[in-house]
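User: What would this chain look like folded?
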Amino acid sequence: MAMTIPICVIGLVLSLAVAPARAGDFNAEVDFVTRASIGNLFAITESRLALDRTGDPQVKTFALRLIESHGKAEAALQAAADGSGATVPTALDQDHQARVTALRSKSGVDFDKAYVADQYEVHSNALTLYADYMLLGDNKALKALAIRMIPITEAELNDARALLGN
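Assistant: Here's the prediction, encoded as structure tokens.
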């Protein structure tokens, strides 16, 4: 005896199966936008601090480049996120704010090392974030941004690596 399933039940099952994927996609966009923006804001905030604190001309040049580069990246992220439903943060999260506060307590060579190490870490994480979104992201504008940011982020990561002496 063949079993027949009402069309409305099939529709309900299919809609439930698709709903988590859509919610997941939106969550992926929110996660990408949030993490990318926090990375930009962190790089800018620490780099402004570095301009005031460092005596090393190479660190100062690096900080100036990051302020300019991440300012442009943040503006591009805001434009790409427009219409995605994801809100671009305008302030650091608690963890990154604590890291800035910790950096403020340092001076001299200790400051420079901590600043560059922070920037190495944030750029390494950003490179992974952009590569993941390039491969797995669904939003075309955000995906295009991720693709554009990969070589820029890689160059900044290499600059931080060189300053660390690695």
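The mean pLDDT is 88. If you want, I can go into more detail on any region.
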